[in-house]
Give the backbone structure.
Amino acid sequence: QVQLVQSGGGLVQAGGSLRLSCAASGRTFRSYAMAWFRQAPGKEREFVAAINWSGGSTDYADSVKGRFTISTDNAKNTVYLQMNSLKPEDTAVYYCALYPGHWDPPGRSIYEYDYWGRGTQVTVSS
């Protein structure tokens, strides 16, 4: 099993920034991808961004492209989501996820991911 521990999130005004963190521990895989998803009230969980852990492709939803950046700190086994120029429509619970393997580009479907964090609330006020 893999544990994904999230931190960050909170309340921010429109135009502000937040950084989410997700630290992976436990089972080690030869290669894997990590991603961020989000779920707003009354909506389905949707893809935000993904990255191959050891490098390679990144992928972003069109709604966040140019504003959000996914990155990794390999020494800390941590993936980050830097969110800039936040909009009220970014308000959601954000989840990190992991799947074993190296896919280029990383997957966008929630069904491709085997391990999930507990989620953290991001609220953007207008």
Remarks:
- The mean pLDDT is 94.
- The radius of gyration is 14 Å.
